[in-house]
């Protein structure tokens, strides 16, 4: 057989498989439509029907990864199913998602990674605006950064929970790669723009390569890229999406000081999420101002053998030198093992707020 004949044979096989895949995807979409009808049928009169089910989506993606035999890697396969589910959900209900903008931010990438491409993403200028959009019902969900593995907590996000009724209904992590980008690489660099967090994540690289050059913190990396696209003597540190969006040349790729640089984002919404089997819970507690108070807050976790994934301190709103602790731990508030712990916490804490139970990030 010639090369052309061999290719022709294999391509016919691919065409036939594609037809079957397409047929099956449409069958799946029909099922999703029926699921929507069932949800509508059983919703109480006047009750908002909840189409988006994060716990089920997490289970579907985990199942895909668990049964995958390759040659496609688990994560690539799960990403394909992420998109299929995103399109299926759009048939049930098109979702509006508010994210910390502008266009081209890592938060936008996180939103797409979590919900897939079939949602409508709406850029917001601040974290407070993301919360407001969701609280008012203008958006179904919001996506905000909460912590970075190099630079630590995003305080604005944590503080937004003090006065908000929104719940955490999901988390998503994104490996962050920073690039130095320019409009015209021939021009000498006079200043470098980026978000303060990103300047911090590339501090050592900048000290080594551009020690005397002014670093200017802006509201976002995408804004930094936009400015660099307008000013010939400027460079920006941002991600690939921003470079594409503002047609900048990447002069130095992956300049983050730590190769495992990762940001965690929260999905906030107005609905509680059921248990997916592998969940996390976020709470906010403040301890009484007395000896052993923090110990009392942590003791129930220790007794129940529950692993804390994060603890963060923020000044509380209740008075000077009072503190609130933001605690994330493994488990769902409905789990048998978690319920008594939360009950105990409410007894010992001066203030207690449950922020949400949600599936652990799958992708
Ligand atoms: O199982 C459901 O509740 C569905 O609506 C179906 C489906 C899916 O496509 O698998 C779609 C949207 C939901 O967020 C979860 C899953």
From TrEMBL:
Pfam families: ACT, CM_2, PDT. Residues 282-359 form the ACT domain. InterPro entries: ACT-like_dom_sf, ACT_dom, Chor_mutase/pphenate_deHydtase, Chorismate_II_sf, CM_dom_sf, CM_II_prokaryot, G/b/e-P-prot_chorismate_mutase, Preph_deHydtase. Residues 96-270 form the Prephenate dehydratase domain. Keywords: Amino-acid biosynthesis, Aromatic amino acid biosynthesis, Coiled coil, Cytoplasm, Isomerase, Lyase, Multifunctional enzyme, Phenylalanine biosynthesis. Pathway: Metabolic intermediate biosynthesis; prephenate biosynthesis; prephenate from chorismate: step 1/1; Amino-acid biosynthesis; L-phenylalanine biosynthesis; phenylpyruvate from prephenate: step 1/1. The keyword GTP-binding does not apply. Residues 7-41 form a coiled coil. It is found in: Cytoplasm. Its EC number is 4.2.1.51, 5.4.99.5. The keyword Lyase applies. Residues 1-96 form the Chorismate mutase domain. GO terms for molecular function: prephenate dehydratase activity. It catalyses: chorismate = prephenate; prephenate + H(+) = 3-phenylpyruvate + CO2 + H2O. PROSITE patterns: ACT, CHORISMATE_MUT_2, PREPHENATE_DEHYDR_2, PREPHENATE_DEHYDR_3. It comes from the Bacteria. NCBIfam families: CM_P2, PRK11898.1. Catalyzes the Claisen rearrangement of chorismate to prephenate and the decarboxylation/dehydration of prephenate to phenylpyruvate. This is Bifunctional chorismate mutase/prephenate dehydratase. It comes from Oceanobacter antarcticus.
